Batch of 3 targets.
Target 1
Amino acid sequence: MNDIMSDRFKGQVAIVTGGAEGIGRAVARRLAQEGGKVVIFDRNIELAEKTQVEFARENLRILAIKVDVSQPEMVIAGVQRVMNAAKRLDVMVNCAGLPGPTNTKITDYSAADFDRVVHVNLRGSFLMAKYCIPPMLENNYGRILLFASIAGKEGNPGMIGYSASKAGVIGIVKALGKEFAETGVIVNGVAPAVIQTPLLDQVKPEQLKYMVEKIPMKRVGTVDEVAALATWVVSRECSFTTGFTFDLSGGRATY
Ligand SMILES: NC(=O)c1ccc[n+]([C@@H]2O[C@H](COP(=O)([O-])OP(=O)(O)OC[C@H]3O[C@@H](n4cnc5c(N)ncnc54)[C@H](O)[C@@H]3O)[C@@H](O)[C@H]2O)c1
């Protein structure tokens, strides 16, 4: 997408977690293309720095910082670094996440795997919101977007940890939307079905077949389609919706 002419995020500062690749990378790029100053938080700093260099070739200035979203000290230090440098925070999009075991019945799903998936997907969402909301409140303005999944709305068999963690993310979105509804801070979620990203390499073929067959459009989504919705949700234009998880499922979830 090189034909973006808008400057919806001019003067704004955004943190995008999981921005080294996949959905986060596409969201970070579009925010920067539309004038935002973007900081990527990713635990894979080598890949995040590679992304930073690739964006620089497109004249997009993005800063990569090593942050594991499940670790409070790293989240606190990362947000503090952004605030020290930029003195404001307008947008936070939490894309960091992992699928964990797939095509695996609960009887074969270890408690350690369950904890690992919940730790990143759910605890990470909690920590990122917890530490990004205070600087947003200082300006009475903020837009938070947490990535849930169709698995959290419908439950994907064979992915118990992932489904549970993403249902939890939807719960966080609902609670925080109400908790801050009278401030300028808006909290929403998005629940995609299958999107073409490196994450799909971690999904067993039988599981992927099940998930794609469930999509009425009979295709996977693209990261640009995700970025188009996500950037609208974190723009000023989205002003009367909070606590809601937007659909992005090619017709699978019509609610
Ligand atoms: N791709 C899909 O089909 C799909 C569908 C529904 C929901 N989602 C959700 O969208 C989000 C993005 O998915 P994606 O497909 O782009 O994934 P991806 O695997 O392509 O990219 C995920 C990024 O998150 C980073 N990351 C992982 N754990 C982290 C941690 N603890 N701290 C910081 N960074 C971490 C990775 O290094 C990577 O850069 C995830 O939350 C995922 O669950 C994806």
Target 2
Amino acid sequence: MKQFTYKAFKAQYPDDDACLQAILERRYGKAEACPNCGIVGKLTKITGRRAYACKEGCHIYPCVGTIFEHSSTPLSQWFHAMYLLTATRNGVAAKELQRQLGVTYKCAWRIGHQLRILMTERAKADDPGQLSGHVEVDETFIGGRKHRTKKRRHGDKSSKTVVMGMVQRGGPLIGKVVKGTHTMSLIPQVMENVAPGTTISTDEWKPYKHLPSLGYTHFRVNHSAEEWVNGIHHTNTLEGFWSHLKRGIRSTHVSVSPQHLQKYVDEFAFRFNKRKEPAEMFNRLVRQVSRAESSS
Ligand SMILES: [Zn+2]
């Protein structure tokens, strides 16, 4: 794995101007001509502003329409946050961003939140389509309280949220927050995200018994009988992802509400899917933040 060290990052993005230049280039290419009037020639950075001028006097604002437009946080701090978000295995909590960037907690939270939205969009844009080959499918419970004092009246078994995972061996992972562990929560996700004819390994959870009738080749591992691996059939890739996700959430995000959980799952899936190319992961995020009309 090729590391993208902090030193390499700082060498590439030493200050606000370098970051602005990166955004300009992602938006307009290596602008050899003014994107406004088309006159050929290098654009000149206007001192003290996030803007460039062409020879004819047009002003170009690369940040307009991006998450940076109305942000008074220096671009170098945004880039630093992007570096931390992509380079850190377990994600970065707002508290840690606050400490590393030297900004207020509110500002750090906002930066993290906006970048996560972009990572989610990026993950969607990278949509691998349906998984195929050999796929592991599994679900897990996240969050909630360990010690409940009172049971809720309507048979609420747990205040935990169910996350379902599907991972192609040697390929991408898709994580979805679902309503429960019953057939109608799980099976439609498989049908949507896994190509027919795919070999699927699961545990013995009942809803998965429908898979063969839907055109999948299905193998189960009987976890309740202490069987964890049956030849090539196991869900160890997902088990690894779950423990990583849970550890990350525990150590960085004090509590994750079900509404926000999908964003965290996407963030972890994004990193998992780009685990072999951390520098590329950062570049993709830069490309994503440089797009106009991104959500803010
Ligand atoms: Zn011009």
Target 3
Amino acid sequence: MAWKESPTAWRTTPRPLGWKALRAQALERDGGQCTWTDGGVRCTEPGTDCDHIGNPDDHSLDNLRMLCGPHHRKRTALQARAARGPQPSRRRPAEQHPGLIR
Ligand SMILES: [Zn+2]
């Protein structure tokens, strides 16, 4: 059975009116830079995508941040995974080869 996955399928909320203005405000506040931090170090790429930090229905400026393309894709993939809920592992636990047991 083919199972087609889309990383953006979880998003059903349309962008609100005035989205462009909100995005512009977030971009200005974040200095036009990606806000992703990894180990306390902020990404130095230009912020090209506007991301919802928490609730995707909350379009307040406090809930928005700029990310670069790669970090937005990473973020969206994490969200999509979270939206699907915990998945059972598809990998079986590694079994030791009987011939290796001493
Ligand atoms: Zn980034």
